[in-house]
Amino acid sequence: MPAAFSGKRLRLLLCLSLSFSLSGGSPAERMMATQTVNQQTHGSPSDHLTLGHNISTPGPDLATKVFKQASGGNVSDVTFVEYEVLLPGVSGTSVEKNITLDHGTRIELSCRLDNKYSHLKSLQVTWKRGNETVRHINKTETSWSIQLRISDNSKLGSYSCTLKGEEEISATFHLQVPKIEGKEKPIISYEGDTAIMICKSFGYTPIAWTWYMTNGSEQIAINDTLLANKYVIHRISANVTHMKILKLTKEDSGVYWCEAAFELGKSKGKLKLKVLSLMVPLKPFLAIVAEVVILVTIIFLYEIYSKKKEKSAEAEKEFDQVEQLNSEESNGLENSSARHRKI
Amino acid sequence: MPPPATTGRAPGPPDGGWGWAVVFGAFISIGFAYAFPKGLAIFFKEIQDFFGTSYSEIAWVSSIMLATTYGAGPISSVLVNRYGSRPVVIFGGLLCGIGMVSAASCTSILQLYICVGFITGFGLALNLQPSVIIIGKYFLKRRPIANGLAMAGSPVMLCTLAPLNQFLFDNFGWRGSFLILGAILLNCCVAGALFRPIGPATASVKSQMAEEGKSALKEVTEDAMEMNSPTNVPMGNKTEDEGGKDCCEKINQYLDFSLFKHRGFLIYLIGNVLMFLGFFAPIVFLAPYAKHIGIDEYSAAFLLSILAIVDMIARPTTGIIANSKWVRPRIQYFFSFSIAFNGTCHLLCPLASGYTGLVVYSIFFGLAFGMVCAMLFETLMDLVGAARFTSAVGLVTIAECCTILLGPPIGGTLIDTFGDYKYMFIKCGAVMVLAGTFLFIMNYYNYRMLAKEEKERKVKEDPKQDPVRTENEGRNNWNKETAQDGPELEPLRQEQEGLKKEVNGTNEV
User: Fold this and answer.
1) What's the CA gap between B211 and B201, in Å, rounded?
2) Where are the bilayer-spanning segments (chain B) (predicted)?
3) Is A321 in the B-facing interface, judged by CB distances under 8 Å?
4) Do B179 and A295 count as a contact with CB atoms less than 8 A apart?
5) Is A313 on the interface with B (CB under 8 A)?
6) Most buried residue, A12, A154, A250, A317, by CB count within 10 Å?
């Protein structure tokens, strides 16, 4: 087997073995902040942040909320959740951090300059959200923070801290609602069959789920009570929703959205459905069956042919031998008669 | 009038020619039988979502399929004894196709169990046994190579089916894929068409000599103790059936239970049943173990690919080694060695640290796995002889069925109880080393007993020089594993001379 070919096979195998390692296929890194009082988070390998000292690896259970917090955005809470970013000394490398929030909290975002850069003087620090400046607190000589109370969707967004000195260093915090993942590959189903679409939220429990179908460029909500013999929507568990589409037709193909409503906003996942007619797999099926029939016929015909050849070859051999024996006998007779004569 | 000597000799196994086409057919058949249940795993997630079941309920589909493939062994053997390999394989292929096509229109998980599990599993069983059996009929001198090549079908098919299944799934969904897989399984019928029937006195030999030979053989077989391979004498078959047998001998005709008195068979059975307890579990748990010690998913899956590729190369290579004149007479020792080697790999696995260690383990494991699989049926053929192999393989597979199914769950329970994978590896390794040692010792004993019996027989028979008896015993005692021309084909040559003498005698008169 040439090396190039086996390399390709290896890659294919690799992709395949991945898909049938049935470990559940949990999707990749969402930025899950394990919220602990006072510190540092992350350690998700795909995170390209420069992290501070305490790097805690995300545990298997993603919703670790270690500290107590009143739910519902109760303002009287004094504790803040802190998110800190360590700034690199070199400008040009912009640092970003994604923070996922599903309900109202008070958070503190801080930018800290590493001690080795403390020689940099006359630094002007600004915190901005878009164009709007936010007032900040100087926590220490080398760290600055802002405190925010996130109570609704309008407060989410990107907050950045900028240090202007000889060079400009900045970092950005992105506050988001949890993302919902749909399926990248289309779900394939057949006319008359049922299709099941599943949406999951990882770690955060949405308040409600809504399903939309796309009609042209519009998204129309699916009302399953109205069309109960076509759509059935189930909330299997707090984080999982199912939608069954019955009696599929070609028109049901298209893009569907599942939307999870959180306290702080909504988040959508995309799913594609493809409805095929029964003729589509039937063609390869019939092609392969035809190939099988042809091969079997060829093999049997070849066998009959070679048996006939064998038979005729044997018949020839026997014929030759009979002739040989006849000639031997006649020779023998001649010899014996010759002997007789001699005597 | 005496026809030429070539048609007079009852033909031994061809050891080539059409035999290689048969090996190719067996390659496909065996490949499907072993690789298909594993390849189905790609569809399980989708089916699980569709029917709303738990993962374990879906995993039952695979287990039922595997259980049926092994458990239906005796039925397969009986059918092959009666009808020969070819019709059974063709029927098996049709059954597989029907099973998968009907699975495409299933509406409940129970229907999937029946269509995919039972029907397709049974079809695969009807593919597996006859393929292995017919190799024994076509090869003698080069049988280990033929076996190694045929068994290589399993990893090759697995490597082909895995991407193919993924492609089908992406384009046709699971229902369409099952439909197309049904058509693909029909290719087993093509493999079956290649299995031309063959025996010591085939129907194609039409000369007078052959007819006389057949009548002589008929008498011989009627006198023989066990009529266990009627396919060997296709012409004279029916007369034996009518010969007023009592119930035991009739059953023995279909499935040779007297094998349980055969020393070599019992040794093989016990050793193998023990071995299968620890055979498959490491493969099942290799990827999860890799992930457990912190390796990412892709690399963990790559370990299995390495295993499959090494396996693919190891099987034919082992066949060639086993065929060499140093190893063939002692093939049982080689088999025990490879089992023990396999066990040692598992015992050393917990010492492997990090990814490189696991890669090395996978390579050695693939090598050992291929060695054992390549010789699995060869050694059984070697012990019982091609004549009784049909029944032997059926009885062995149904006995192995239980331990094969128990192996991974026991491993899983060990992992769950202790929370550590190393106990599972230690258990598998220990079981296999034990099985290997047992087989080694018992086969040593068996070889000695056989040598003793051989000596006794030679002493008895030398004065008589009965060609017919020697031919019969020769056929019944192919467990003399010396594959060289001399000893093995000697009985056949003696028979040829004997028959020649008879003919010459009649002519002289």
Assistant:
1) 9
2) 18-37, 58-79, 91-124, 145-164, 176-195, 265-286, 298-314, 334-353, 359-377, 389-411, 423-445
3) yes
4) no
5) no
6) A12
